[in-house]
Amino acid sequence: MSVTQKPPLVAVEGLRKSFGQVEVLRGVDFTVEEGQAVALVGSSGSGKSTCLRCINRLEEATGGSIRLDGVETTGPKVDLNDLRRHIGMVFQGINLYPHMTALGNVALALRKVVGLSKAEAAKKAMHHLHLVGLAHKGDAYPAQLSGGQQQRVGIARAMALEPRVMLFDEPTSALDPELVGEVLNVMTRTREMGMTMIVVTHEMGFAREVADKVIFMEHGEVLAQGTPHEILVAPDNPRIRDFVQRSRG
Amino acid sequence: MDKIVHYFFNFGLLADYWPDILRGFALTVEMSALTVLIGVPLGLALALARAYGVRPLNWLIVFYIDFFRSIPQLVLIVLAYFALPSLGLVMSPVAATVGALAMVLSAFAEEIFWAGLTAAPKGQWEAGRSTGLGFTQTLIWIILPQAVRMSIPPLTNRAIGISKGTTLGSVVAAPELLNVTSSIQSNVANPTALMAGALLFLALFLPFVRFTRWLERAVAHPRS
C-alpha cells in the first residue's frame, strides 16, 4: 500500500438522509479518486440518486460527512454557489432551459457565474457543444432537438464550467432506447478526457466497460463495492447476482 | 331608420363638442396606459418578492392581493377620492381613479405572475442552481422568462378588463371619455355623443386587443 498525500477527490462518510420518517440513506461510505469513474447501481429506491444529490447539496444530508478535495462540503458555512460551480450535474429529466438556445443554455452560467463576457462565453460554449458533437445546433431551441441531443447539451452545460467532478443522475433513463447510445458515447469520451465522474445508472454494459469502480446500493446502504468485474460479472453476493441477472433482461 | 340615424348618428350636432370629446378620449388613453404601466410592474414586483418566501412579508402580500381583488373597483375609487382626504391625502379625480385601478390590477397581476413562477418545474431551479447560479440569478434568468410567457394571455385579459374601468372615473368627475360624452348627451338631448364615445372606446381597445394577440405569438418560444 502506497501512502498518498492527496485525499480522495470525493469522500463520503457515514452519509445519512431522511425524508420525514423515511430513512433513505443509512450510513453510506465511499471514496472517488481524481480521474476515476464510479458507477452507483442498485434497484430503484435504494438511495443512489439521493446520495448523488447530497454531493452537490440539492438534498441536505441529515448526517455524516462529504468532503471535496479534503474540504467538508456539508454545514451552513459553505458557499453553496461556489461549491456547485465545481460540481457538474446531468439530470434524468435533462432540464434544459426551454426559452434559450442550446448555446444560451451552455453560456448562461459562464456569463453569470464565471463572469465571462458575452463573446468569451459564446466561444467557450461553442467549444463544449463541439465536444458533444452539436456545434451545428447552437441556435436550436431544446424543443427542436431530440432527447439524446438535449442530454448532450445538458452534458456540455455542466462540462463548460470545468468542474472537479461530474454527477450523472440516470442520464439515459428518460430517453428512447435508440437515443441512449449517443449519450453514453459522449459520457465515455468525457471519461477519456480524464474527468472524474459519479454515474447513477441502470446501464450495466456502460458500468462494466467504463467504470473503474462499481458501488452497489440497497436499502440506503452500500452492499458491496469493487471493480466492475467483482460486482457485475462475478458477484459473490447472491442479492447482487440476482440483480445483475435481472438487469440483463 | 331615419329615427335611428337621427338619434344615434346625428354627428352634425356634435360639431361644437369635438374638442371636448377628443380631450376626454386623450384622458381615457392616458388613464388606461398609466393603470397598466403602474399596475403590471407593481404586480410583478410583488410576485418576485413573494418568491423569496419571507413569511411575514408574504402574509402582507397575500392580504394586499386578496383585499384588492375582493373590493369593487367603484367602491375603491369613491373611497380614494372621498375618504382619503380625511387622512390628509387629497388626490385629483384622475389620480384617485388611476391609483385605485392600478392597485386592483397589481393584485390580479401578482396572482398571475405568481402562478407562472410556481408553474416552472422544480428541475429548472435545480439545473440553474447546480451550475452555481444563486437564487436570484436563477429566478431572473431562468424562471421569470418562462413565467412571463405563461402569464401574458391571462395578464392581457385582466389589463384590458381593468383599463376599461377608467369609465368609473366619471363618478368622481374625472373628465374622461364617458363622462364627457354623457354630459354632451344631456346638453344636446341626443345620444349620438355616446355613440361617438363608444366608437372611440372601440378605436382604443380593439387595437390593444389585437396587439396583445400579436404579443402572445411573438414571445412563444419555438416548438419543434
What can you see in these coordinates?
The complex is a heterodimer of chains A (249) and B (224). Chain A has 249 residues and is an alpha/beta fold. Chain A contains nine helices and ten strands. Chain A has helices spanning 48-55, 80-85, 102-114, 118-131, 147-159, 177-192, 204-210, 228-233, 238-248, and strands at residues 10-19, 22-32, 37-41, 63-68, 71-72, 87-90, 165-169, 196-200, 213-218, 221-226. In chain A, the strands form two sheets. Chain A has a six-stranded mixed beta sheet with strand order 6-7-8-3-9-10, with helices on both faces. Chain A has a four-stranded antiparallel beta sheet with strand order 2-1-4-5, with helices on one face. Chain A is globular, with a radius of gyration of 18 Å. The N and C termini of chain A lie far apart (39 Å). The relative contact order of chain A is 0.17. The model of chain A has no long low-confidence stretch (mean pLDDT 94). By secondary structure, chain B is mainly alpha-helical. Chain B has one domain (16-220): MetI-like fold, CATH 1.10.3720.10. Chain B is built from nine helices and no strands. Chain B starts with a helix and ends in a 5-residue tail after the last helix. Classes of the chains: A alpha/beta (249), B mainly alpha (224). The interface between A and B is medium-sized, with 28 and 22 residues.
